[in-house]
Amino acid sequence: MQDHLYTIPVTEIFEQTGGCPICRLRDTLEKRVCDYTLGPAMMEPDVRQNTNRMGFCAVHLEQLRQGKNRLGLGLLLDTHLKELRKNLASGGLMDSPKKAAYKAARAEQSCFVCDRVEQGMRQLLSAMLKSYDTEPDFRQMFKAQQALCLPDYRLLLEQAAQQLPRSGRRNF
Ligand SMILES: [Zn+2]
Ligand SMILES: [Zn+2]
Q1: Ligand in nearest proximity to the CA of 116
Q2: Separation of 98 CA from ligand 2 center, angstroms?
Q3: Which of 64, 92, 93, 159 suits 21 as a labelling partner, its CA being 20 to 30 A distant?
Q4: pLDDT band at residue 3, thresholds of 50, 70 and 90?
Q5: How far apart are CA 5 and CA 159, in angstroms?
Q6: Where residue 93 falls among pLDDT bands split at 50, 70, 90?
Q7: Which of 21, 13, 22, 109 is nearest to 60 (CA)?
Q8: Tens of pLDDT along 105-159?
Q9: What is the pLDDT of residue 42?
Q10: What spacing in Å lies between the alpha carbon of 82 and ligand 2's midpoint?
Q11: Which ligand is nearest to the CA of 59?
Q12: Contact of 125 with 155, CB cutoff 8 Å
């Protein structure tokens, strides 16, 4: 779905230096997903089903609130809260406190924006590693970066271990 969301030109991100390039990539994607959520997505019934079901984490709710479409956000939250109330109450008094707490924890952890960003990052990192493996120019750009943050260093190594051929893994 919405594949255009994830077509960020990775080389443009790597043309800049300073800080962690993967964080820059994620920031760009996050902003795109937020704009999309309060833009075209509002008119797509299947996407609305997802925002109603998943809601938003505190970080992204704040990011959406800072955006330009507060009326849109109000509408999204209205239908999301209706669905959330229904889900939390679905077992009624028959739910044990433990089960009710479990449902609440799941609701707390789900976020439409986090989910889309994670999905997009997987695709973008995969494209990035492919460029690293096959394009000497991109490899130079990668080497010119000053730093990687620790979580993204780990993320890259995990993806490289899965994706790159043996020789590529060693180079990387
Ligand atoms: Zn980072
Ligand atoms: Zn989130």
Answers
A1: 2
A2: 25
A3: 64
A4: low
A5: 21
A6: low
A7: 109
A8: 988 999 999 999 999 999 999 999 999 999 999 999 999 999 999 999 999 999 9
A9: 84
A10: 20
A11: 2
A12: yes
- pLDDT, one tens digit per residue, over 6-65 is 777 888 899 988 899 999 999 999 999 999 999 888 888 999 999 999 999 999 999 999
Specify whether the backbone of 55 is left (phi greater than 0), alpha (psi in -120 to 50) or beta. left
Q: Can you tell me the distance from the alpha carbon of 20 to that of 145, in angstroms, rounded to the nearest whole number?
A: 8
Global pTM value? 0.87
Annotated domain spans of the chain: 3-171
For residue 172, what pLDDT band results from cuts at 50, 70 and 90?
confident
Residue type, 5: L
Cα-to-centroid distance, 147 and ligand 1 (Å): 8
